[in-house]
Amino acid sequence: MKKSLFKTSFILACLLLICCPTAIAQHGGKAEPLRIEFKRGATSTTINDTVRGSEEAEYVLAAKKGQRLIIKLTSVPVKSSVFQLLGEDSDTLGLEHDANFEYSGVLPKTGDYFINVSRPTQSKGTSRYKLTVTVR
To answer: What is the pTM of this model?
Structure first.
């Protein structure tokens, strides 16, 4: 009985792997961006983290059309981290790709905005950064 149950379970697992590889693959690969949320009553938050080599830290925040978004990035060594800001439809909001340290602008749409922090070079090295995000 135990052998038959094991055999049936094994066959079902194999069929699942063959028939549904995309459902299993969805949980692998690239991690979801870290959602930036503000404490109750706050309009600003600061994240301290590190990127190494070609790593990229990804963040997402929800904001409304007409709100002002202010981003400030400082790092050690100086200017060893940069950020890219993208709208939901990959709109660059007029910013240079991967070469930003500060941003202040009125948001054109309600939705999620993505902030990617990385080192400006692919070479070995580590950058400790402080990312301050304000929405008013």
So the answer is: 0.75
53: left (phi over 0), alpha (psi -120 to 50) or beta: left
CATH number (domain holding residue 107): 2.60.120.380
| Residue 8 domain flag | no
- pLDDT tens-digit map of 30-58: 689 999 999 999 999 999 999 999 999 99
Q: What is the DSSP string of 78-98?
A: TT--EEEEEETT---TTPPTT
- The CA-CA-CA angle for residues 50, 84, 58, to 5°, reads 45
How many domains would you assign to the chain?
1
Q: What are the residues whose beta carbons fall under 8 Å from the beta carbon of 119, sequence distance 6 or more? A: 51, 52, 53, 54, 55, 80, 81, 82, 125, 127
Question: Which among 130, 136, 128, 95 has a CA at the least distance from the CA of 114?
Answer: 95
